[in-house]
Amino acid sequence: MPQTGRLSFGPCHASINEGTFVIGNAHVERRWRIDNGLLYPTSFRDLAAGREWLARPASAPSPSPTSPVPDEARAVHLSGSGGRAGAAEAPSLVAVLTASGATLTLTYRFQIFPEARGVVARLRAERRAGAESGPVEPARKLPPSESAGPTGSEGGTERQPAGEPDGWDLLENLDLSPRHLRLTRVTLRDRTDRHNELVFEDEWLLHPNEGPLALSGNLFVLEDTLTGDGLILVKHAPLPHARSHPPPHDLLVRPRDRGVRFVGHGTGPGDGEGDPFALIAYRGGRWGRIEALQTYQRQLRAYDPARDGRFLSNTWGDRSRDGRINEPFLREEIEAGARLGVDVVQIDDGWQRGRTANSVESGGVWNGFRNVDARFWEPHPDRFPRGLAPLVEAARARGLEIGLWFAPDSTDDFAQWQEDADTLLALHRTLGVRHFKIDAVKLRGRMSEDNLRRFYEAVLTDSGGAVAFDSDVTAETRPAYFGLMHAGQVFVENRYTDWHGYWPHQTLRNLWKLAHHIDPLRLRMEFLNSARNADKYADDPLAPSRYSPAYLFATVMFASPLGWFEVSNLPAAYFEQAAPLVQVWKAHRQALFSGHLFPIGDAPDGTAWTGFVSLAPDRRSGYVLLFRERNDRTHWSAELPLPPDVSYTALVLAGQGSLSLSEGRLAAEIPQAQAFLFARFTTYPPCPLP
């Protein structure tokens, strides 16, 4: 019999009692039956909705290791603690359930945050070296679903997907109770140098005649169509194409009996520590799903106004590459950046002594950096003969910071991860640099994934969470949107007017679509110098030059903005039109980013009414950003998730037009096409300005 014990931290609790493991908070509660160290799900309750999601106890354990476990006795022990488990995380309760046998130890790590509506789990399986293999526990075959009835051959044989699990390598094994469920598979794309449409949603209204579904992905949603209540399954791993040990499928669903199997720890046949995963409940349909996902991501990386949502500039977008990088040029960038309102002037590839394959000079490398030059990551002696300290001081004197580009060495599965972490920490300690763009990453196996994670966590831990990473996902094989959610921003795309590849509505579209699933604060999104290469967009009504500089900044100000240009090369219009908007945004961004951010309107396509709304948690105030793209509709309205019996007053902060809110509905007018409106609204009488 497992020990009896209880842990608690604020509203979070975990306990073992009479062979049952329980973990929960004020929002949700989960239960498993413990059988010789294996866990069988018996309950998932959404406490706010007052509903039980599971139709019956599970017949196979989950989480379960990748291969059968020895038939031996295992002692179960509960330990854990409350507080901040990671340098960038919100405080949480971590409960560790250890099942120890003579040859195998299973370690279940559960984490629950006070504000999240779900539980994070992770399984580690360790087999004692040299232990002789003996009898194993019989495979828990998942029960077959009933026949769907007569088919053309009258046999009624069930269709089985390839890779039907045998009860092992399961993350979740759930039989759901609602009869009417909508399943959504969300597919996200990285490698944005080759892809531009980044979000796809496939939907099934589950029906008994539908055969078993075998799906790949990181994010799945099951929603009760009658109530709008739902469950979200999230796998904290690279996208399927980038994983070292992807399972044949990540989700197996049997529509007839609503059986759901979340599959694949990502360790391969050798066991070890699997990828974390989460099961999250929500209410309120689409609005509730977006809110639950954002709230969850904000627990993994708690919003820090002094670190997150900063406006970065980066000269690489003007395609000079490293050809202009030196101290005099960067001093010009600092001065111009201060005029525009930039927070961080980020120096891309070229600040360092070593030469990469992206240099204007030939002979550079894209891997094995210290093998070429042991001093590769020192400041370039010719470009910065006095080092970087004078630039850092010049930036600080103008109220800015300096950020840097860096490429951890992928050679030998990031074998030099500690040296790379020490390099960044030295820059952070000696110069105060805390914003790093991470590039050139190449994941080649599970060891690569583990060592890259160690690199990030070493820097975050030693800096107390002060360092912020922008992880480039534009090429190669990288952790992307779900692999390192606690590390910082995702550098989403490189777009250049030089190659006729930047349109404001396309970048806005990617932000809008990603924002349904990824916290916009985690997305580094760019706007460019629209005066460059205008001739390449001749007669194009959606050309970058057709929009004001303020509009261009507005397209990314509900994300973490990136000025993808040489600030000192901008035309005067940017300082006359965009800079005032930047100052307005800065005055309100902490309140804006402290709310839940929702896409509204239609997906941007150059002709839509579209935008975003930020709602304070108490729904008493918020912000609206609307875009009237190229269309002839001066008026637009939409429902918002606001209480219909509350009165609001709106104040236009920037842009043009007017806005009102009544009975939970927004109504707006923007008199000109290709224009925007930014407004704050509060309950009446209004709340004080931030």
From TrEMBL:
<feature type="region of interest" description="Disordered">
    <location>
        <begin position="128"/>
        <end position="171"/>
    </location>
</feature>
<feature type="region of interest" description="Disordered">
    <location>
        <begin position="56"/>
        <end position="84"/>
    </location>
</feature>
<protein>
    <submittedName>
        <fullName>GH36</fullName>
    </submittedName>
</protein>
<dbReference type="InterPro" id="IPR017853">
    <property type="entry name" value="GH"/>
</dbReference>
<dbReference type="InterPro" id="IPR013785">
    <property type="entry name" value="Aldolase_TIM"/>
</dbReference>
